[in-house]
Structure formats: C-alpha cells, structure tokens
Amino acid sequence: MATTSTRNVVIPLGLAQTLAWASSYYLPALLAAPMARELGLPTAGVFAAFSLALVVSALAGPVAGGLIDRHGGRRVLMGTSGLFALGLLGMSQARGLASLMLAWAVVGVAMGAGLYEAAFATVVRLYGQGARHAITGITLMGGLASTVGWPLTAWLEHHVGWRGACAVWALLHGVLGLPLHLCLPRTMARDAGAGPTPQELATAAPTEPPRPAPAPSMSSPAWTSFLLAVVFAITWFISTAMAAHLPAMLQAAGASAGASVAVGALVGPAQVAGRLLEFSLPRRVHPLWPARLAALAHPLGAVVMLLVGPVAAPLFALLHGAGNGILTIAKGTLPLVLFGPGGYGARQGWLMLPARVTQALAPFAFGLVLDHLHERALWFTAGLGLLCCAALLALRAGRFNPA
C-alpha cells in the first residue's frame, strides 16, 4: 500500500465528520420542538425516534468496524454519505411517528458506520500505531460540528422550516460529503488474521520488531475492556444529554433563548481548544493522564454554575466542551495504545456498543431528570463524570508506543 500524506486523509475526513455530526447528533436540539408541533407529537416522541437511531447505530458499529478492518474505510464511508442523505430526505417528508422513526433508523445506520469510530478505524487501517496524530486532527475539525451545525440549523429552520432544513442537510451529504469520502485512498482487502500493513511496519521503531502495546500491567485485557466500555458509556451519555438539552437546560437556569444558543455555540471552540491542548502535550505522555483530567472538567463546570448561577454558563460550556474534546480523542487513542492496531475497528465497535445504548437513553432519560430537577439536573451528570474519572484511575498507564 502506497504511503499517503496524513494531511490528505485528515482534512477530508475532518470536514466530512463535521457535516455528519452537525446533521445527525446535533439536529434534535433545535428541530425536535418544531417537528413535534407540526406532526402533532410530544417532544419526547421525537427524541424517542432519535434514541432509536442511536440503538441502530450501536448494532451497526461492530459490523462497520469489521468491514473497515478488512477493506478500509473509503467504500464504507461513501456508503454512509448516501445513507445520511436518504435518511434526512425521508425525515423532511415525514408525516407521522412511524415515518419519522423509519427515517431516523436509516440515519442511525449511517451514524453507526460513519461517525468518529469509523473515521478512527479508517486511519488506524492506514497508519497502524502511528494513527494517533491523525485521530487528533480529525477530532480537531469535527469539534466544530455544534458551532457550525446549531447556528446553521437555526437559520434554516427560521427561513425554510424544519423540513427544508433536513432537505438542505441531505443535499450537503450528496454534494459535499460524498466527494470528501471519495478523496480517501483505496486500501487492499485484508484478511482478519493478516500481519501488519506496510504503514504499520513503517511507523514501528526501526531497531525493534513491531509489537502491540502491552495491556496495563495490573489489568487483564477483559478488565481493561470493561473499564474502557464504562468510560465510553458515561462520556457518551453526558455528551449526548448536553447536545440534546443544553439550550433548554440553560433556559431553565434563567438564561434567555438567544443567550442559550450563544453559550451552546461555545462548546465547539472549547472542544477544539481541548484537543489542541492534548495535541501539544509531549508525545510520551500517556493518553490516560489527559483523559483523567478531562473527566473532571464537566463536574467542575457544573458545580460552579449551580453555585453561581447562569452568569457562569459560559464557563460551564467551555469546561464541558474542553473536557469532552479531550475525551473524544481518548475514545480513539486508548484502545489503540492499550491493545494495538490489530482488529481495531471491530474492537472499537464492541467497546462502543454500550456507549451507543447509553446515548440512546440519554435524550429521554436526561429529559425526564431535567423536567423534575430543572438546572439541578447537572448534579446528576456531575456525579457521572466523577464515576468516569474513577474508572480511568482504575486503569494503569503502563508502557506504550508514543508514535
């Protein structure tokens, strides 16, 4: 396989990820209410359709990861561009709960096969253990999805309605997403038991034979996998709950509707800043250390906002975004450095399956908590963040390949 410039892979994937996240994960926060009003549904019904998409994405993830392990990500990701477009177009034509749920189910398949985990598996398939920089680069660009997506969705909904907004996002997947994925390099089919790729050999230390990074010294692979699954499940729950309900939660705390959207738009730049901070750390710093500190960011921001009030909402958004940005990188790098690149896509799919389930529960479950506790619902997510940090502390850093 010919050497491919990392930049020529990261830029198309990063732009495509920004589009994919903005038009799926960040859509319900602004379109759920107008969808519910026109279709005669409770808002919870729209979030239930979104939750269905997340359940479908959980089931699609391991299958997509295995396909990327064997064939590379280009064809899989090109297919997701079509699925995103089909699902969003179907959403724009929904006439009731059944058609809305069917459209979200199609989008769910695209999410399971086309969001970060698939992008990470694609670059690991290309670069092996040396994919850490590429993973960070993709998340740097994808971190702007809420900053781009929420204002654009709000503008489209105001001018062409929620149906028009969905149709425009569908069109963007055809005219922008598909060509971006088409730019990715072709990769040869690879058997599950095949040895390292030339890229993996090239990124290994020249004086030593390539070897997978060892598992933490005091944790078995099964225990390590369990703890990682717990970390991913908690972080995805918090991230999804905030993505779906942050504007409403800030309004419950006393902020105006306009201020809530403006504060929510800070999350994206904060995610990028957090990822730049992680990227600037010496490469010999194990990814567990920034992940542990990042897990404390959301609880710290939540406590400050609960004690000070909505005037601290920007600080909360910045801390939440920065922590979430670093933890998103950790979802890609921790399995790589703890287990090595072999079978990365399928392993990532299975590790993320519980996270996708908690994602599916998050909009509805946190919505109930928000209805009962209002802004005090942040105590709940702050407690989850502390549990996530405890799970990361239970993992031992050990030695790893700092490529």
TrEMBL record:
Q: Which InterPro entries does this entry report, sorted A to Z?
A: MFS, MFS_dom, MFS_Efflux_Transporters, MFS_trans_sf
Superkingdom, taxonomy of origin: Bacteria
- The annotated region (Disordered) lies at 194-217
Any Pfam family from its record, for instance, is: MFS_1
* Principal location listed in the UniProt entry: membrane
Domain Major facilitator superfamily (MFS) profile residues, every copy: 9-403
Chain segments annotated as transmembrane? 46-64, 76-94, 100-127, 134-156, 226-246, 252-272, 293-312, 318-339, 376-395
Compositional bias ranges of the Low complexity kind: 196-206
> From the UniProt record, which GO molecular function terms apply?
transmembrane transporter activity
Q: Where in the cell is it found?
A: Cell membrane
Which Gene Ontology terms of cellular component type are present? plasma membrane
Keywords attached to this entry: Cell membrane, Membrane, Transmembrane, Transmembrane helix
Topology with respect to the bilayer: Multi-pass membrane protein
Checking PANTHER family in the record gives: CHLORAMPHENICOL EFFLUX PUMP RV0191 (PTHR43124:SF3), PURINE EFFLUX PUMP PBUE (PTHR43124)
Name by which UniProt lists this protein: MFS transporter
Originating species? Ideonella dechloratans
Higher taxonomy:
Bacteria, Pseudomonadati, Pseudomonadota, Betaproteobacteria, Burkholderiales
